Amino acid sequence: MICVQTGSRLHFGLLSLPPDDNQAARCFGGVGLMVERPGVRLAISPASDWSADGRLAERALSLARRFSATLPADCAVPQRISVEWCAPEHAGLGTGTQLGLAVARALAAAHGLAHLDGAELARRVGRGTRSAIGVHGFSLGGFLVDGGRTTADQLAPLVARIAFPDAWRLVLVVPRGTEGVHGNQESQIFEMLRRSGLPAAATEALCRLVLLGMLPALAESDLAGFSEALSDFNTRAGEAFAVAQGGIYASPRVAEVVAFIRKLGVRGVGQSSWGPTVFAIVEDTERAEQLAQRVRAQFGLSNDEVVVTAARNQGAIFEDAEPQAATRQPG
User: pTM of the prediction?
Assistant: First the structure.
């Protein structure tokens, strides 16, 4: 049995949305953080036919079939996939990428391809086509900045990675019953935004907040400085999507949660990706638990909908619990 465990990905915002007449410019780019919870853990074992169980089992099975299609026909060994736990999908937690890479990592090891890196695993399951934060985060963990890509088939390079302070904690608000933009709708929105692009001044301001705000604040474990830069960055990044979301945030409910947390004196708060996940960063576990309780009480949310977590400063964990049955290795 082969097990893979990874975290979840928060995405704080993109850096660039160049118009059609500026194809030479790098597009997308972005900033994000890997966190321990909710995360993904799955196990695979050889079987007579492909199957999957657990949360998002059908999605995991589809990803497994996509990976196996990249192998020579006589090399793919059917596996049973058990998704032991998994973050909700389309919630701003990067679950599709983390699940896809976990499946790919496990299958690669089962087929004698443990040497494949994150970029190759992502290519084989079709992830990392815009943001590369989740791909690099799967491999390395931590706070990450990707530099955008110049071609459609390129994985954006990692330009900065720094460990998140161990003591800091995050409160994640992930309400049930709502989903962020995804799939065809997301593609259509990006196509619409491509026609207008993001003004150069906006990209310059976002890059300044990363280089002269968040990164040095993290290096000095300066929570106040990091929080101010992050809040400003997340708000500015959200403004670029206001025409698609109807505002800076995905919904009035998300905006209400963000405003409530700010009124409690927390500055490092915002929306992850398309939402609906709201993140808030505080100095330690005690403060995080207090904040979580206030949010649950204010909005009638359960323990599962308001989660306290640490950042994840390491990549995915791989375990080969017992010897695999004989595999047919690709030539």
Answer: 0.90
